Amino acid sequence: MKYLPIIICALALCLGEAYAAEQTDADKKVPAVWAKNCAPCHGGNGKGTTTIGRKMKAADLTSEKIQKKYKDKQEEVIKLISEGLIKDKKIIMKPLKDKLEEEDMKELAKYLEELGKKKDEK
Ligand code: HEC
Q1: pLDDT digits over 21-78, tens only?
Q2: Which residue puts its alpha carbon closest to atom 36 of ligand 1?
Q3: How far apart are CA 3 and CA 7, in angstroms?
Q4: Is 29 close to ligand 1, i.e. is its CB under 6 Å away?
């Protein structure tokens, strides 16, 4: 079977990647999780100036108001992410508890704080 070496190669690549993903430290992983789950509305910088973000009036997560509200309240951010945000029976932010690990949410909460700090640096 002449494809066998190719299959083995592909498999090795897959395993290698899975392994690499597990090896990456949270620092590198979080921006990717953010990019996938939050950035479509909140933008990479958290300001919510993406097309969808503007349309939905996504909060500027770097604003003093939000930063103050969630300062040192990691568990509230985790709750918000896991249960989502529902207003007037409309789903604004989808609950992500089935999609993300608790650890990811924790890191996102930290990331949120970092975004606020980054803004101050400018
Ligand atoms: C589908 C678009 C969308 C996605 C995806 C999304 N958000 Fe939001 N988010 C919003 C909107 C819109 C608001 C403003 C809601 C309001 O105040 O009416 C908001 C508000 C927030 C707030 C402020 C809530 C408050 O107390 O006022 C936080 C914090 C937040 N989002 C975090 C996140 C995080 C973290 C993620 C990724 C896990 C995420 N959002 C993904 C649309 C989104």
Answers
A1: 554 555 678 999 999 999 999 999 999 999 999 999 999 999 999 999 999 999 999 9
A2: 38
A3: 6
A4: no
